[in-house]
Specification:
The structure holds two protein chains of two kinds. By secondary structure, chain A is mainly α. Helix content of chain A is 73%, strand content 0%. Chain A is built from 18 helices and no strands. In chain A, helix 2 crosses helix 8, helix 4 packs parallel to helix 6 and helix 14 packs antiparallel against helix 15. The longest helix of chain A is centred in the middle third of the chain and has 31 residues. Chain B is mainly α. Classes of the chains: A mainly alpha, B mainly alpha. At the A-B interface, helix 2, helix 8, helix 9 and helix 13 of A face helix 1 of B.
Chain lengths: 456, 40
């Protein structure tokens, strides 16, 4: 069978006897791979000494120049999810996942060339633009497929996949460190070789996802066993709303309220995540070493990953509106309490509060596809999700700017470093209160907006 | 999954193994690193 035919949507239909539990690993293979992007910072220092090797030479790139590689990739993640979301629904998950693998692995290869030629523009275009397109395609491609396979547990299914994106850094970071140590010589930092090796490894893992993913046959329903819990699941699956086309969905108030819900939840979390290491050291001066702060960052990453699965799975039982109400209410209380905990000097409580906050930050990402499915149906959810991810792009800029700017402003006014985060925490709590208000206003769409297409 | 064939069950197990092995390795790295926070 020619490759392009194999990738077609029609050739991705599962045969009889296919287990739906083979689909989450396919999705995880994609998300664990593209999640490497969150670990790109481990290349920053080696990239800044490519010429000087053990010191920064005049021709070496500055860290601020290198920092743009990740930013460009995240911008193109949002742009490609926005642009290709609708194409994905017609092309099917296998073709989209294959395109994602080609772009992401191709981006790493191009970045290796950029290192060889010492051209930052080639790295921007390679890892940033091409790789970023791969990130966007890969992020949204398995989501609607999983919800079609798990109409009884859409939150759990998407939580599993999106958990992989959070966990990708945990593989990508030590892998990159190990590869650079292996390839490093007296005249090379081993970065280009590491990019090539990672390109091959990630392409192989992503192709495993491409070969494994399947779409359910038309009319397929999940196997539901006996028992009250299973009957409740079957009832939830049957409750799936009618579909709304993406063009109509983005004109509804509920879409923009959900956009605000995601944007506010991410803004409140992402800025703190980026400042976690200096924040804990400055709030507890003298008692937290740089190594312990790195451990704190690792713990937050773990909470971010675990929260994606735990909270989104819980949302299948308590409902999406209540789950987000918990994120916002509990998050606001915890943020407001953090300054007091800092003043009391309780590191354990401080860490515990942030672990819960970060779990809900991850949960917000993972629960949103199922929320969209509840409101707009499953047929166009990939495209709608792609549009909604623009909220992430904005929050990715607003969150860190808010945290960094307010901290510098406070310090500039003579506030001690240990107290410089107090106002930020109260602002984060306020943002979450606005998120709670937006969430409370989300409503099912009017039946006149239901999609009336006939195919499939 | 009681209605699945033995071959299909093996495929499910293999698929999970492919993704869980690197994931567990990565999580273990973080847990080891996080120990510094509590051993300070």
């Amino acid at each position: 069978m020619p490759l392009l035919t194999f990738l077609d949507r029609d050739h991705s239909i599962a045969p009889a006897g296919f287990s739906r539990w083979r689909v989450p690993p396919a999705a995880l293979a994609i998300h664990l791979s593209i999640g490497q992007a969150y670990a790109f910072s481990v290349f920053n220092l080696p990239l800044s000494t490519l010429v000087g090797i053990d010191h920064a030479a005049p021709d070496d790139w500055k860290l601020s120049t290198i920092g743009w590689i990740f930013s460009v990739a995240i911008v193109f993640l949002g742009l490609s999810a926005f642009t290709f979301g609708r194409w994905l629904e017609s092309a099917g998950p296998r073709k989209a996942m294959f395109a994602s693998a080609c772009c992401f692995a191709g981006g790493l290869l191009a970045a290796a060339l950029g290192v060889r030629w010492h051209s930052i523009a080639v790295i921007y275009l390679g890892y940033g633009v091409l790789g970023g397109i791969g990130l966007g395609l890969g992020y949204i491609s398995p989501v609607s497929t999983l919800m079609k396979w798990f109409p009884d547990r859409p939150g759990m299914a998407t939580g599993l996949a999106i958990m992989g994106f959070g966990g990708g850094a945990m593989i990508g970071s030590p892998l990159a460190v190990a590869l650079m140590a292996h390839f490093r010589t007296a005249s090379s930092m081993g970065v280009a070789e590491s990019f090539v090796a990672m390109s091959a490894l990630y392409f192989a893992l992503m192709m495993f996802g491409v070969f494994t993913v399947r779409l359910p046959a038309p009319g397929w329903t999940p196997p539901i066993g006996a028992g009250a819990a299973n009957r409740a699941r079957a009832a939830r699956a049957a409750e799936a709303p009618r579909d709304v086309h993406v063009d109509r969905a983005i004109k509804t108030q509920s879409f923009w309220l959900l956009w605000a819900v995601l944007c506010l939840n991410v803004t409140a979390g992402i800025g703190v995540l980026g400042q976690a290491s200096p924040m804990i050291q400055e709030m507890f001066p003298g008692s937290i070493s740089a190594g312990a702060a790195a451990g704190f960052v690792g713990l937050l990453s773990l909470a971010n990953m675990a929260g994606r699965f735990i909270w989104s799975s819980l949302s299948d039982y308590i409902g999406r509106p209540r789950t987000y109400a918990v994120y916002f209410a509990l998050g606001a209380v915890l943020y407001a309490a953090v300054p007091g905990v800092g003043r009391a000097g309780s590191v354990t409580l401080f860490v515990a509060f942030y672990v819960v906050i970060m779990s809900m930050y991850g949960g917000g990402f993972a629960t949103i596809p199922a929320y969209l499915r509840d409101i707009f149906g499953v047929r166009h959810v990939g495209a709608i999700h792609g549009r909604l991810l623009t909220a992430w792009s904005l929050a990715g800029v607003a969150g860190p700017v808010l945290v960094n700017y307010i901290r510098e402003y406070q310090i500039g006014r003579g506030v001690p470093k240990a107290e410089a985060y107090t106002v930020t925490m109260y602002i984060m709590a306020g943002l979450l209160v606005f998120g709670m208000m937006a969430n409370a206003r989300v409503r099912p769409v009017d039946p006149s907006l239901w999609w009336r297409g006939t195919h499939e | 999954m009681s209605e699945l064939s033995r071959g299909e069950r093996w495929k499910v197990a293999l698929a999970w193994l492919v993704v869980l092995v690197p994931a567990v390795w990565g999580v273990a790295q973080v847990i080891v690193k996080s120990a510094a926070l509590f051993g300070r």
